[in-house]
């Protein structure tokens, strides 16, 4: 069990271009907030501000990194010896919904992330941005994009073939076979 009064809590709402952070104390009161660009040169600005505010307290960073935009920030923070936790987006969503009026802004999201970090610090997982998993994720995303493109092109081919060759499925059972594609390339319409 951590002593809450020994820490300040930095909740980070991460986006492609900017990161918004809110710093709270152990009583869940907002001390300050800062928005930085998602680039390593701005990460130092965040850490300097947090260091200035924290004094003798230990800063704890909570990242809600749904799309992987905070990977480089997490790496920098961990390399500098900071405590970095992953905050599940479902937890911050529930925190946001627990208020009578729901707000939606980056600053409010970061505040909710910091509040979750304060209450659940002991149970949240450590941030672990491993290159292997990131690389696999990028490859899977690329593969998904290629599969979508192939499906779109195949559907377009079927549509165009159906226009010029209404009974094309009787000629070739697989319209993507080398023979079928060569035939349709040489004879794009029955009149050729």
UniProtKB/TrEMBL annotation:
Residues 10-165 form the Transposase IS110-like N-terminal domain. Coiled coil: none annotated. GO terms for molecular function: DNA binding; transposase activity. GO terms for biological process: DNA transposition. InterPro entries: Transp_IS110-like_N, Transpos_IS110. It comes from the Bacteria. This is Transposase.
């Amino acid at each position: 069990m951590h002593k809450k009064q020994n820490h300040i809590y930095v909740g980070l709402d991460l986006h492609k271009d900017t990161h918004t952070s809110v710093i709270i104390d152990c009583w869940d009161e907002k001390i300050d907030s800062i928005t930085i660009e998602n680039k390593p040169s701005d990460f130092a600005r965040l850490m300097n501000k947090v260091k200035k505010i924290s004094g003798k307290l230990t800063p704890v960073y909570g990242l809600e990194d749904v799309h992987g935009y905070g990977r480089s920030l997490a790496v920098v923070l961990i390399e500098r010896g900071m405590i970095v936790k992953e905050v599940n987006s479902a937890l911050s969503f529930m925190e946001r919904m627990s208020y009578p009026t729901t707000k939606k802004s980056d600053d409010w999201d970061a505040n909710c992330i910091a509040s979750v970090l304060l209450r659940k610090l002991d149970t949240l997982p450590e941030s672990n941005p491993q290159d292997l998993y990131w690389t696999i994720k990028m490859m899977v995303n690329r593969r998904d994009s290629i599969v979508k493109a192939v499906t779109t092109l195949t559907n377009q081919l079927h549509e165009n073939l159906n226009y010029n060759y209404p009974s094309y499925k009787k000629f070739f059972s697989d319209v993507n076979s080398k023979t079928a594609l060569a035939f349709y390339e040489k004879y794009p319409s029955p009149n050729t």
